[in-house]
């Protein structure tokens, strides 16, 4: 039978310790290290229970419990209930939240090079993406983020490549000419769709379904899994696998929280993340396959357009943004052999 332990949220304990006169993170966590209380790491994800990040989080939780004989555990918080993606990073950076599995998009606010993941066709496929992230480039990016944001990247999973929904078949770049395509409030995405010949329209995600339903916009880009869960198939008849952007997602922990753990606890966290990483990657593949099958049964036509026709249009985007994001890093990623 598993030993019943008192539960202590590590970020909460650290915050209380810091509120004391001159308390350090080491002293704040000393009691949790030595008195047998269970350390519970609060982990935020933007998705609901059962989604791909939940699969990753649960694998991490179960392995951490196994490695520490239940001395450490994880409480998963769903649907951004602890804050939006940027806020989650900020909270981890000030030791107010233990962990998060979220999109890498907001990381560009701290390290400019992370904005390169918004560039079109930076990565050819998942093999290219993970060769980059699992190698020295991924390590360099993670270290820069740790230094700038005080958040430690433990591993990389994904939101995956984006597909584009519409009410017409998209077989080449000619087919998006003049279409009002919803984009995020992101200048790189706006410039990309302008280069494709479309009419990019920034819009909050909460307005997208209604916007598509009412014809305010003609289409949008997102993962197949999100197209399914958001029921976009109810208002769009086609999905094109343009796959112009790949969105990595870090398994991350507050640097201060991590450094407040004992060496054995740190090793357990690292090993649990290493265990969860391939499970999370496979979860996204599985969810994408399930989504593709589901939306096709609902009547959606999935096409694989001529991606080269889109690629011929993107050099102006690189000419504008590469100097701002980091030409050397972009060249290393685009030309990475895998």
Descriptive account of the structure:
This protein has helices spanning 10-19, 25-34, 52-67, 85-93, 126-133, 136-149, 187-196, 208-214, 224-229, 255-259, 263-297, 307-311, 315-325, 327-334; strands spanning 7-9, 38-44, 72-77, 99-101, 151-161, 163-166, 180-183, 199-202, 219-222, 238-240, 246-254, 301-303. It contains 14 helices and 12 strands. It is an alpha/beta fold and 338 residues long. Helix 3 runs antiparallel to helix 11. Strands 1, 2, 3, 4, 5 and 11 form a 6-stranded mixed beta sheet that branches. It has 2 domains: 7-158 and 248-290, Bacterial extracellular solute-binding protein, family 7 (D-Maltodextrin-Binding Protein, domain 2); 163-245 and 291-334, Bacterial extracellular solute-binding protein, family 7 (D-Maltodextrin-Binding Protein, domain 2), CATH 3.40.190.170. The model is unreliable at 1-7 and 16-31 (pLDDT under 50).
What is the N-to-C order of secondary-structure elements (H for helix, E for strand)?
EHHEHEHEHHEEEHEHEHEEHHEHHH
Taken as a percent bin, the fraction of beta residues is 15-25%
Count of discrete structural domains? 2
User: What is the overall silhouette?
Assistant: globular
Radius of gyration: 21 Å
Q: Summarize the biggest pleated sheet.
A: 6 strands, mixed
| Euclidean distance between termini CA atoms | 47 Å
The CATH class of the largest domain is Alpha Beta
- CATH second-level architecture of the largest domain: 3-Layer(aba) Sandwich
Tally the helices: 14
- Helix coverage percent: 40-55%
CATH topology (level 3) name of the largest domain: D-Maltodextrin-Binding Protein, domain 2
Mean pLDDT: 91
Signal peptide: 1-28
Keywords: Signal
GO molecular function: carbohydrate binding
Protein name: TRAP transporter substrate-binding protein
């Amino acid at each position: 039978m598993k030993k019943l332990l008192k539960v202590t949220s590590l970020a909460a304990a650290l915050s209380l310790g810091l509120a004391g006169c001159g308390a350090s993170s080491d002293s704040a966590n000393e009691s949790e290290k030595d008195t047998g209380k269970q350390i519970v790491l609060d982990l935020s994800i933007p998705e609901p229970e059962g989604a791909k990040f939940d699969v990753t989080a649960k694998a991490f939780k179960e392995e951490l419990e196994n490695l520490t004989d239940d001395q450490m555990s994880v409480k998963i918080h769903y649907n951004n209930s602890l804050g939006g993606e940027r806020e989650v990073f900020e909270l981890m950076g000030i030791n107010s939240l233990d962990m998060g599995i979220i999109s890498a998009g907001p990381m560009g606010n701290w390290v400019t090079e992370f904005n390169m993941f918004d560039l079109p066709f930076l990565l050819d496929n998942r093999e290219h993406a993970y060769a980059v992230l699992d190698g020295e480039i991924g390590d360099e990016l993670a270290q820069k983020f740790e230094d700038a944001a005080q958040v430690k990247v433990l591993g990389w999973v994904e939101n995956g490549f984006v597909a584009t929904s519409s009410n017409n078949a998209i077989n080449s770049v000619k087919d998006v000419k003049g279409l009002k395509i919803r984009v995020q409030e992101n200048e790189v995405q706006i410039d990309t769709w302008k280069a494709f010949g479309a009419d990019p329209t920034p819009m909050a995600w909460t307005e997208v379904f209604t916007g598509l339903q009412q014809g305010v916009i003609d289409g949008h880009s997102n993962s197949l899994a999100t197209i399914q869960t958001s029921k976009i198939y109810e208002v769009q008849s086609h999905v094109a696998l343009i796959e112009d952007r790949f969105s990595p997602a870090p398994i991350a922990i507050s640097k201060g929280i991590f450094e407040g753990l004992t060496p054995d606890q740190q090793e357990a966290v690292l090993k649990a993340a290493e265990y969860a990483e391939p499970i999370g990657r496979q979860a996204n593949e599985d969810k994408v396959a399930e989504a593709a099958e589901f939306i096709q049964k609902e009547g959606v036509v999935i096409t694989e357009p001529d991606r080269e026709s889109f690629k011929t249009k993107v050099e102006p985007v690189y000419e504008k943004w590469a100097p701002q994001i980091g030409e050397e890093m972009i060249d290393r990623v685009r030309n990475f052999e895998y």
